[in-house]
Amino acid sequence: MSEWLTIWQLIDQLKPGETATDENEEYTVSWKHSLFFEDEDRNVHKDIILSYKCLIWHILSKYAPLEEAMKALKDG
Q: Residue 39: which of 56, 54, 55, 22 has the closest Cα?
């Protein structure tokens, strides 16, 4: 897992195609043409930056950890 980031650090570091989630895994953020904040029900929230700026976030890895990938390969 990546380091925990404030919303402002996240905005600075999130790259197109990446996704991040908040500490409670209630919201995800993705960068397409702009930032998209979605809740668990896939509802888009455009005002989340101001109302949820105290949350901490981390960028999700695009790849599984090596150990997890090797186990999946072994298990078929």
A: 22
What predicted TM-score, i.e. pTM, was given to this entire model?
A: 0.61
Q: E strands of 1-76, at which residues?
A: 19-22, 27-31, 35-39, 44-45, 57-59
Structural domain tally of the chain? 1
Instruction: Dump pLDDT digits (tens) for 23-55.
Output: 888 878 887 766 767 667 766 666 555 455 557
- Which phi and psi (to 5°) does residue 16 adopt? -55, 135
In a domain, 70, yes or no: yes
What span, in angstroms and rounded, lies between the C-alpha atoms of 6 and 69? 30
